[in-house]
Amino acid sequence: MRKIDLGQALSEAFAALDAGRPEEARRLARTVERLRPDIPGLAYLYGLVFLAEGQGRKAAQQFQKALAPSPGAVPPLLGLARAQVLQGREPVAAGLYRRLIRLAPDLAEAYAELAELAIRRQDHRDAAVLLHRAVTLRPAHPVWLNNLGAARKALGQWNEAALAFAAAIDADPVHVRAHLNLSSILRRLKRAGEAADLVRAASLMAPGDPAVWLELSLAEKDAGRLPEALSAVEEALSRGQPLAEALWQRAECLRALNRTGEAAAAYRRLLGHDPEDRFGASLVLAGLDGEEAPAAAPAAFVRTLFDEYADRFDQHLIERLSYRAPAVVAEAVFRLLGAGPFDCCDAGCGTGLAGLALQAVVARLDGIDISPRMIEKARERNIYDRLDTGDIAPLLAARPAAYDLVVAADVLIYLGDLEPLFQAVATCLRPGGGFVFTVEAAEGAADGEGARLLESRRFAHGDGYLRRLAGQSGYDILALERVSVRSDRSAPVPGRLVVLRRPS
Question: Torsion over CA of 208, 213, 215 and 217, rounded to 10 degrees?
Fold first, then answer.
């Protein structure tokens, strides 16, 4: 009988794993185990085998066994972190990755894999820092470079994101996802023609991928080539299960081509696939068909919009849109309601910009927002006593006489019918309490006109409607003033600042 070299058998098992043959590695491991169950490296080998097979719990047990004689050994510790991720125990895994970084500061994998956990919890800032360190240690890793670009993109750092995606393509010229991601940045930088050229190259690499054709359609539309955009999105839809994003893009292309009947049918098809209406198709349909506008923007549309916007919300509003709503609201509170201190609810609090502006006049500050990501950002400011996720009106109606002040800075643009909110605020205000908000102005609105649905999928409100509703809801009007709280396409958006008070 041929004598087996156990060391060589272990080496062959590790090589089989590296080559993607875990069954062969397991067979060799069992052979070694029968002859010498205590041989060093066997538990680590089994941990890797179980990890390759997706058995996180068994892998963790083996890695812990491997760590028993040497708790600071880096390879089994890295394996244990990965096994915890596989089991969904991400906080435990994160602690292990941080320990690895302390033990082995040049271990690029620890930074990159800890960054993946940050991305999962949508902490893009932390992910960007970690991935920057990973690619500094290993500069030509296409997956990490692409992930770094995605983190930079989520933070609104367009130029830095473009550089990372371009580096990923340099490292792997057939990295399709990096091509698509770079195209999306080029579109945002108003370089749609370059974006389309880039995606056409990707379409040769992955002609069956619907995402490629969707991105090509987006680039062609941004470049003003509407027939080509429509053709590309129809190609995307022919490649498999319809994507809601592709259905939306097709409807938008048809509308831009003035094929109104087909566009309306396309928006209805989208609503069949996306009944929550994450894209706001019902709002567009109301404008196309002349149907009555919804009472409010669909909750899923607003939630999705702001969840995706959360990480770059403050920078984008203040630097690009000349956003002034929090300052306008805070100044009105000081001027017309006094210095407080107020028990206040910031309705539609977003990331907390209005809450910051009101710090000097509040004794208690609560916040409500429909977007969970916005609530997370507001919580990071550590200025709110209570934060809730949900629709504003029902949450306020459930808090009778809880507040002296309710503010809504640039929030009512997503509501058409304001009566439920006015009634809810009246319920939650104490006698003499104030309601301060801004709206987009429906200039020239007739006295009997209600909300006006704009092409932007926002609502505007006329002065007559606001006065009538305030009176019906039992408020005194302290101010109804012309303001502009933000810009759109470099032009001030006409608005109104409204200050109401519940009688004492």
Answer: 180
